[in-house]
Amino acid sequence: MSLSDGLLALSTPLVAAILAFVVLDIFAIVFSMSFVRANRAARETADGQIEIAGKPVKSLSRRDFFRRSLLTSLIVFGAQFGGATIAFLWPNLKGGFGSLVAAGNIDDIKAEISDAGVAYNGTGRFYVVEYSGSASGDVDYATEGVTAEGIMPLYQRCVHLGCRVPYCGSSKWFECPCHGSKYNGAGEYRLGPAPRGMDRFKLEITDGNVVVDTSEVILGPARGTDTIDQPPQGPFCVATG
Fold first, then answer.
1. Superfamily of domain 100-218, CATH level 4
2. CA–CA gap between residue 54 and residue 61 (Å, rounded)
3. pLDDT band, very low/low/confident/very high, at 4 (cuts 50, 70, 90)
4. How many degrees, rounded to 5, is the angle at CA 17 between CA 14 and CA 22?
5. DSSP-derived secondary structure for 73-133
6. Percentage of the chain with pLDDT > 90?
7. 30: Cβ–Cβ under 8 A, 6 or more apart, which residues?
8. Cα–Cα distance between 121 and 152 in angstroms, integer?
């Protein structure tokens, strides 16, 4: 897997969670050190009291120190939990993966497909492919809501072990670089260890604008499904095992 694929895998929620944990941990360390310093200063006072601006200040007892430390720990834990919750819900707040994703104008998407073979949406982690196949057995993508006006979104994740599956320009298939699973242009299983075809998402097209619902993954079709009858159009990009 390339470095760019690895960076794509580092999602916005994960980055937000990491930053939240780092900031809160630094806060907890600084806060705890202040208690340690206060307790040490109190112990060094001969009579157990120090004077600040002429006023006696009672030293911090061991019991008070541990009580405040426990309270601080609970506050930090609650803040970390809240930060993690916000990070988990971040896609729904920002319109990224896990929510409704605006994929763009259908004419622009079809133009990109015509030029590159697929249209890729990094925010939603999906490809948009052109689709004009017909129902096969129990598989009818139109009734599943995953295709409309000749396009269909496919989840970039390989259903075998989760690697990102690139599109091969020569074979016109999707080929997983990790373990060699291969799917035709409609994301239907063809070769390799994958248990089914590529997963997909529902979409809606309103006034020419495509919106893909990435909050629900529609499981890919079973092995043997072939609605487009597409053999490889050229050499494979990933060698077969």
1. Rieske [2Fe-2S] iron-sulphur domain (2.102.10.10)
2. 21
3. very low
4. 125
5. HHHHHHHHHHHHHHHHHHHHHHT-TTSEEEEEEHHHHHHHHHHHSSEEETTTTEEEEE---
6. 57
7. none
8. 12
List all residues 6 or more positions away from 200 whose beta carbon is below 8 Å from its beta carbon: 126, 141, 146, 152, 153, 154, 155, 187, 217, 218, 220
Among residues 160, 137, 152, the alpha carbon closest in space to that of 225 is found at 137
For the beta carbon of residue 227, count every other beta carbon within 10 angstroms: 20
Q: Estimate to the nearest angstrom the gap between the alpha carbon of 143 and the chain centroid.
A: 27
Task: Answer for the pair 186, 178: CB distance below 8 angstroms, yes or no.
Answer: no
Whole-number Å distance between alpha carbons of 33 and 15: 27
Angle at 62 between CA 58 and CA 63, to 5 degrees: 95
Nearest to 116 by CA among 128, 100, 126: 128
Q: Name the nearest CA neighbour of 127 among 116, 119, 135.
A: 119
- For the chain, the structural domain boundaries read 3-94, 100-218
Q: What's the pTM?
A: 0.64
Q: Is residue 1 a contact partner of residue 164, using CB atoms and an 8 Å limit?
A: yes
* Nearest alpha-carbon partner for 80 in 35, 23, 34: 23
Residue 50 to residue 57: CA distance in whole angstroms? 6
Would you list the DSSP string of 117-164? SSEEETTTTEEEEE-----BTTB-HHHHT--BTTEEEEESB-TTT--B
C-alpha–C-alpha distance, residues 18 and 84, integer Å: 9
Q: Over the stretch 220-232, which tens digit does the pLDDT of each residue have?
A: 999 999 999 999 9
